[in-house]
Amino acid sequence: MDLVVVKFGGTSVGDGSRIKKAAQSVVNEYMKGSRVVVVVSAVNKTTDELIGLSDEAIGASLTDKQKAEIMAMGELTSARLFSATIESLGVKSEFIDPYSELWPIQTDSNYLEAKIDFNTTRKKTEGILQLVNQGVIPVICGFLGQGPSGEITTLGRGGSDITAFLIGHCLDANEVIIVTDVDGVMSTDPNKIEEAQLLEEISVEELRDLATHGAQVLHPHALKYKDPLITAKIINFEHGDLSSKGTRILGPYEGEMLKCVTLYKNPISLIAIVGEAMVKTPGLIAKLSGSLADSDINIFGISAGQNSITAFVDKTDSNKAYHLLHKVVIESDVLSSLSLGRDTAMITFVSPDIIDTPGIISEVTEPLRKNEINIVEIISSQTAIVLFVDWEDGEKARELINEVLE
Predict the structure, then answer these.
(1) Rounded to two decimals, what is the model's pTM?
(2) How far separated are the first and last CA of the chain, in Å rounded?
């Protein structure tokens, strides 16, 4: 029998009728012959209300331990409600919270941003599997963990998504279903653009980047536990049907695959274009990049300043690109000159943790400074840092950055 892990977000259990509808969808799936494990969030806005009450009543003297225990009340309540609703529909269920002997998710002692002990957690999920194989539907509190001394910890905002993928991974589930208040992943925010379209599928990498840059669909850290053998999808609770299509999440998160340092195989040439008031000229970058695109020349990056723009191209294309960009310069009233720079090595450091790691750029660049490796250019985003160094220093720089990663 297939094993399905289903996570219900706060909106999907926002009131009694929604809880009953969600529980019925689980029972329907169970009746089809599937083994089902439920992960449930706190009822919509409960956690925010609990935090607000705590701040108002206690203020700054509230300890992290107390805050974690208070915040946990939302999930403790919703798990009990959900489990009881399943049983009212005629199927045996059991809620699992950090006070239960079967509680699986083990963490360090950080109360509010706990790190998961994956190996211990995997062993502890054996008890959940035994329960499932007995025909019982476990309802597990999302967002919560258990520290080394049995204390309640939390996994941070969006932690219920982490719980679902983590449990799915540890149980070798066939599928993880995220039930939320949208039909799936859209081409953009439908509240801002009415023409937004539902995506039938999206890769782990694309979804991670969307979530990291603010899309309120799925917690980006949850995708660390996306097993390559497990299918996953996001569906709308309104359908009341776990077989709804929604958006499929494709591909694995294979350990360090999304946390790596790579050195591009060829030298990268830098072409610097200078001029006056460039930053105030609309469409300037489009003209420059368009002239290269028309000749099928790939741009590895663009760096823009007040009076200069630097384009990064493969050395094999650099002479052609140089001449093409020169034509744009002499035809422009804003641009004045350009130069073809030295050969550089392009090193890319990719990690979903970049956005949540203060000082990570200094950590990556400090060993280069100590080894007198000059950084020609640096470009960063919320998930990647791209460094350009002299070509002869490329391999050494990659090794030094890898040591930081390790």
Answers:
(1) 0.73
(2) 40
